[in-house]
């Protein structure tokens, strides 16, 4: 099982990676600090789950997910938005952009378990 995390903040990547590794010890977790690197990874690595921060400097999460969804090969890839935003109308915007689900920072273990159990049974 392969999971890619994309976030421009190293501390966020490290924390989320540690949580996920504890919850899915057999998973291989790749951490990218720049969404522009993602295309290469998707072409070279079989991915089971992608988690993307929404606010990044070079390419934001919305642009990144739209770009990924343009490739039919990745049409069904579970893509989880990671955001500090808690507004209820935000979910509609995320779904329109192509995200499968979202979790809110700071990370709640129950949210991570819910997402992992749903998308990586």
Order of strands across the biggest sheet? 2-1-3-4-5
- CA(first)-CA(last) distance: 11 Å
Indicate the radius of gyration in whole angstroms. Answer: 13 Å
By CATH's scheme, which homologous superfamily applies? Response regulator
- The top-level CATH class is Alpha Beta
Helix content: 40-55%
CATH architecture verdict: 3-Layer(aba) Sandwich
Poorly predicted regions are none
The number of helices is: 5
CATH topology, by name, is Rossmann fold
Q: How many runs of DSSP E, i.e. beta strands? A: 5
Order of helices and strands: EHEHEHEHEH
What labels would you give this structure?
single chain, 121 residues, alpha/beta, Rossmann fold, five-stranded parallel sheet, 5 helices, 5 strands, 40% helix, globular
């Amino acid at each position: 099982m392969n999971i890619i995390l994309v976030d421009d903040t190293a501390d966020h990547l490290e924390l989320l990676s540690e949580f996920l590794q504890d919850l899915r010890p057999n998973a291989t977790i790749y951490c990218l600090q720049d969404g522009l690197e993602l295309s290469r990874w998707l072409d070279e690595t079989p991915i089971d789950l992608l988690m993307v921060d929404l606010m990044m400097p070079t390419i934001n999460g919305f642009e990144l997910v739209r770009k990924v969804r343009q490739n039919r090969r990745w049409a069904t890839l579970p893509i989880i938005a990671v955001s500090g935003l808690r507004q209820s109308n935000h979910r509609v915007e995320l779904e329109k952009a192509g995200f499968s689900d979202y979790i809110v920072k700071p990370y709640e273990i129950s949210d991570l378990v819910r997402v992992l159990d749903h998308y990586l049974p």
